[in-house]
Request: fold
Amino acid sequence: MIIFLLAVVGLISGYVIYGRVVEKVFGIDEKAVTPAVEKCDNVDFMLLPTWRVFLIQFLNIAGLGPVFGAILGALYGPIALFWIVLGSIFAGGVHDYMAGMISVRNGGKSLVPLVEKYMGAKIKIIFLIFMVLFLLLLGSVFAMSPAHMIADLFDFNFVWCLAAVFLYYFLATLLPIDKIIGRFYPLFALLLIGVTVALTFILFTGDKEFYPQLTLANLHPQGLPVFPLMFVTIACGALSGFHATQSPLMARCLQNEKYGRSIFYGAMITEGVVALMWATLGMAFYGGSAGLGATIARSGPGGVVSEVSKGFLGDVGGMCAVLAVVLLSITSGDTAFRSARLTIGDYWLKDNQTLKKRLLISVLVLSGGIAMSFFDLTVIWTYFGWANQCLATVTLWMATFYLEKHQKCYWLTLIPAGFITSICGTYILYDKIGFRLPLLWSTVIGITIAVVCVSWFVAKHRKIKN
Reply:
């Protein structure tokens, strides 16, 4: 219990202390006109109350990430807590804040034009294709998942359920942000926080031990290595590239730059707290990695959510948990498609805010998502975790170039950029989806790649400075 409380205090302290450091390095301007005012079109650009923007941002970046990712990460044991806490403070929070605030400074632009501006036009087309496919993949999977859950829960036809989900996605992608997302997302965010806090409170009042296997040793039942796999498994609970596609959505609704820390950095820290709670619930409820691993092997992380909720809250609580999982899946999908629309619009059209143009891009985006849903995405989905962290790597490097260009302390983003570069390099060299090299060789090569990239950037900066 004490370790859990210390971890929570650490996350909160990170927001208060390191969050201010990040804000100071970036250099906010409280008198600056934000895109929500300058480009207000009452569709994507509009002023929303700060509390509402925070809850929308939190749910946009969260979805199922801090639940499923944290549960899978808990298989490694209490060592997962370190990545959740340190990752959220020094990597995820910095990543989300920079992605959001750099977008604010550039008229609310999405990630592709920002990468082009600060890293060069040579990678623009490749990165655009990567981004769109990434978002369509994510949206398609989070259309099929809730459709299956709804069909199983109420004995409905899967195809009709899938059609209903895509119809909702089309409306959420096309309509002004305050009509659906701005109206219902704050409620869904409170639902996620409320269910998680309730389960953790019962854990406090019960007789289960928080961390039955209190050790920093790797406890994964299959013996999978902590480095690099754990850092890819626990994504949204510590660092996730998907967040960089979502922060620009709220950059278009921000009232003042002074709220950037609470909305972008604060939402990531809140997500870290939620991930910390679900990782702890997974370890405590099953008494260790073996029991947790057996349930995941049998029914996946969704089964863990259902069993933990029923065990602590009864059958009604279990039903509510399943419905919450459905809602969280859907919220991950619709913002993915909306972000894809904005990404294509920023690149393809100078003004994509008219209804006709929004409709055209929305139809194209949803058509791609529907087409993907007819293929077996099992193999492609295995690449998602790696692709997600690659996107985070690009975002952190983009932020590093931004800080260097504006003569600010670029080490703030260079260090996490170098670290996650080593993770992505090692992962693709070692894992079965990649080259399947021995772990030692993969680690040495991955770290070498990161060191070379960091050294090149520092040398480049010194040359320019001289």
Q: What stands out?
A: Residues 58 and 267 are 5 Å apart (CA to CA). The radius of gyration is 21 Å. The chain has a mean pLDDT of 91.
